[in-house]
Specification:
273 residues; alpha/beta; six-stranded mixed β-sheet; 6 strands; 11 helices
Length: 273
Amino acid sequence: MSAKNAKTPKSPKINLPSEPTPESVQYHQDLREAQIELVKFQKHLIKENEKVLIIFEGRDAAGKDGTIKHFTEHLSPRETRVVALGKPSDREQSQWYFQRYVAHLPAAQEMVFMNRSWYNRAGVERVMGFCSSEQYEEFMETVPSFEQMIVRSGIRLYKYYLDIDRDEQKKRLLSRQEDPLKQWKISPIDMAAQKHWEDYSNARNQMFARTHSAMAPWIVVRADNKDHARIHVIRDFLSRVTYKGKKESVVLPDPTTVFLYSRSYLDNGMIAP
């Protein structure tokens, strides 16, 4: 083919900034207020030598990356860590299952955010057959005791599960394929998410039923609206901690968006089927 007839690849579509809407102005105002409260809390955490671990689990494309980014955006990087572990090595596969996670637990004055966690075994490993039934059962039986040890050691543990419906997940996965800036988010596991939707629902329901406890409860987030979910996850976290100068009017979460797990929510539609 001659240079004259060669087809020029299409350039990615660029979305130019539009005039801010009242809704977007309100969102950024709410986000700023919540992030100011997070900075206040971190100042308290450092002063009091506290340790905080926040786990984010959820459906593929539910918004874990963006939620963590909004949490950490203005926090001190010295005392803030984000942990997103990849596939375990052969050596790690021979270790006690929790061993590689223990190394990332927070020390005094630290906040650690886990983008997925040991609950991989209850979710993707279970659904995709990456662990045996025996390994799965051992995990489900021992994780409550493991989390009790974490909490009793002085670490404040918060477990959030970001939930979206099937159509919203499909839309977001398609967006990842079409957007050149989101290519890093695409994986074979993500592409199988829609095919295994019911399997993931069953695995999630078992995980909630067997690992939700008073000491380490699951907090469910309806994340179909990303912006709304991000604001209210931050507010929910802030509502659960104490610190000097807390502005109570800023930390009131929407109880229809963020709520403690209950078996009844699987039946009434608050948790996506």
